[in-house]
UniProtKB/TrEMBL annotation:
Catalytic reactions of this protein: dITP + H2O = dIMP + diphosphate + H(+); ITP + H2O = IMP + diphosphate + H(+); XTP + H2O = XMP + diphosphate + H(+)
Binding sites annotated in the UniProt record for substrate: S7, N8, N9, K10, G11, K12, A69, F154, G155, F156, D157, K177, H182, R183
SUPFAM superfamilies: ITPase-like (SSF52972)
PANTHER family: INOSINE TRIPHOSPHATE PYROPHOSPHATASE, INOSINE TRIPHOSPHATE PYROPHOSPHATASE/HAM1 PROTEIN
Record InterPro entries: dITP/XTP_pyrophosphatase (IPR020922), ITPase-like_fam (IPR029001), RdgB/HAM1 (IPR002637)
Cofactor binding note from Swiss-Prot or TrEMBL: Binds 1 Mg(2+) ion per subunit.
A Pfam family reported for this protein in Swiss-Prot or TrEMBL: Ham1p_like
Protein name, per record: dITP/XTP pyrophosphatase
TM segment ranges: none
Keyword Metal-binding part of the UniProt annotation: yes
GO cellular component, one term: cytosol
Length: 202
């Protein structure tokens, strides 16, 4: 089964393709099908993921999978949340992972409450009009470090320390990260939902 992934992020594609391989699902990036990105006007992960999935399915005619994810920092009341990808631009930097990390560490200078969580909401649709979307949410809670540590992964991986491991996501091997990340947890839930609803024989 081919699923259009409503994202142009190569890191997300690689992670999710590995996680969905057991079902024999092939993920195709929307960019590879000439599909433009959908507007994301909403303030919650689930609303944006649903909007992205419906858009990709509508244009491609394929079932779709969308992920909306972000960093929720306790000291900032849960922000940047859905604005995570553009976080750096609020502080005069260009959009990008490295600048997001730089801006976050600058904004957290002197803050003692370092609690934060990476959150991922996955939505899967059989068609753009599917009345029963599959929804899965994963959360990886940790502490924001004082400086980036590790060189694996992407996004905020170098600055989110996971207390059970004593390491950041950027220090973990891919298989350990995938099993414990927000996206990994959401994908495991989504796999279970797909097996139950879409592939009952799988």
């Amino acid at each position: 089964m081919r699923l259009v992934l409503a994202s142009n992020n190569k890191g997300k594609l690689a992670e999710l393709q590995a996680l969905f391989a057991p079902l024999g699902v092939e993920l195709v990036r929307q960019a590879d099908l000439g599909i433009p990105e959908a507007p994301e006007p909403h303030r919650t992960f689930i609303e944006n993921a649903l909007a992205k999935a419906r858009h990709a399915s509508q244009v491609s005619g394929l079932p779709a999978l969308a992920d909306d994810a972000g960093l929720c920092v306790e000291a900032f009341g849960g922000l940047p949340g859905v604005d995570t990808a553009f976080y750096a631009t609020q502080f005069g930097y260009e959009k990008g992972d490295d600048n997001n990390v730089r801006a976050l560490l600058e904004q957290m200078r002197g803050i003692t409450d370092r609690r934060a969580a990476l959150v991922s909401t996955l939505v899967a649709l059989r068609s753009a009009d599917d009345p029963e979307p599959l929804v899965a949410t994963g959360r990886a809670a940790g502490l924001i470090t004082q400086e980036p540590i590790g060189d694996q992964g992407f996004g905020f991986d170098p600055v989110l320390l996971l207390p059970p491991f004593g390491k950041t996501f950027a220090q973990l091997p891919a298989e350990v990260k995938n099993a414990n990340s927000h996206r990994g947890k959401a994908a495991q839930q989504m796999l279970a939902l797909m097996r139950e609803r879409w592939f009952p024989q799988a």
